[in-house]
Amino acid sequence: MNNESDVVIELDHVRVSFGDTTAVHDASLKLHKGEILGVIGFSGAGKSTLVRTLNLLQTPSAGRVRVLEKTIFDDGTVIKPRELRALRRRVGMIFQGFNLLNQSSIADNIAFALRHSELSESDIEQRVRHLLELVHLEEYANAYPAQLSGGQKQRVAIARALANNPEVLLSDESTSALDPQTTIQILDLLKDLNRRLGVTVVLITHEMDAVKRICDRIIVMEHGELVERGALRDVVLHPRQAMTREFVGGSSETERSLAAYHLGGLKPNQRLFQLTYGVDNVDQSATLELYRRFGVESSILYGSVDVLNGELIGTLIILVTGDAQQLKQATDYLASMDIDAQQLDSSLVSSDDEGADDSSEERVA
Ligand SMILES: Nc1ncnc2c1ncn2[C@@H]1O[C@H](COP(=O)(O)OP(=O)(O)OP(=O)(O)O)[C@@H](O)[C@H]1O
């Protein structure tokens, strides 16, 4: 469980301004040991700027940054260059463009990160071999970057970032230049390294699928603000901000699907519910029980299955029909079930094309 003692990074009211442009406004966040945090937002939202403050590649204009129990920036005061260099070895970073040295072999690219270490030459050689094994590139020690595919180059960059055994790995759009299949391989590698080495990961991306695949927690950025945050499951299944809904896709897809029925709104004897369940409560058949117990009929209007960080999540939207007493019984019963049930607003099935706003969901569970 997360607690204060496992905080590896803490931003406290951090602001970054470039002249008149403020790229990050008043950002506060905590990163816990061993987690994978996704930072998502459209281009220009301030994601890179925010994450670059974590190793002071970007000096903030105000606020406080604490990394691995060291205050590295406090309202204008920066730690000494020597301390900063030592700290940066504990915080690895990978980028969209790989940043490899094209004139050096793969082994030398990785060894480059160890040039200031106290390891002997043979220890460095051994460490490089081990790092190449970690990223499944044992065969490529003597190859040059130009001979490698984009996915393989990113693997080299990951090996180099891990050379000094960092506790934290920052990934800035590391899969954005890769095709979907290679993206999945790199994401799975990051997850695997997170599990095996316990390295904490910050994944900056504009791709929701990347976040859904491996992140434990997510922060959504818009115009330099952290507009939404929470556990992946909560944010994906119940996004609060319109921007997050757009990213998550599921909700806007749901809205489009429901609008396509052209129901023209709910009748007085109808209610709309969204049911969400995982593998642990997939056996609870809400629709069947509503009929058995109270004679309440329900029609399924929408269904989907998502995979969130390896966990299967099902979503059903049902239209429940009954008299006043039955509707109350149905509402109470759904609230008592293990599955998550939310009553949805009738605007989702009304004839005007207006989508639901933030007040359109009312939790019953
Ligand atoms: N060095 C800089 N000087 C001036 N403005 C900058 C600088 N770096 C970033 N900005 C501005 O800050 C804002 C946020 O940029 P940032 O790169 O952090 O966003 P982002 O969400 O990472 O977007 P992208 O995915 O396109 O990189 C943008 O308006 C950008 O133009």
UniProtKB/TrEMBL annotation:
Short name of any one Pfam family annotated for the protein: NIL
Composition-biased stretches (Acidic residues): 351-365
PANTHER family with a match to the protein in the record: AMINO ACID IMPORT ATP-BINDING PROTEIN, METHIONINE IMPORT ATP-BINDING PROTEIN METN
Keyword Cell membrane applies: yes
Gene3D superfamilies given in the database record: 3.30.70.260, P-loop containing nucleotide triphosphate hydrolases (3.40.50.300)
PROSITE patterns per UniProt: ABC_TRANSPORTER_1, ABC_TRANSPORTER_2
BP-aspect Gene Ontology terms: amino acid transport
The ABC transporter domain, residue ranges: 9-248
Matching InterPro entries: AAA+_ATPase, ABC_transporter-like_ATP-bd, ABC_transporter-like_CS, ACT-like_dom_sf, MetN_ABC_transporter-like, NIL_domain, P-loop_NTPase
SMART domains according to UniProt: AAA, NIL
Protein name in UniProt: Methionine ABC transporter ATP-binding protein
Keyword RNA-binding annotated: no
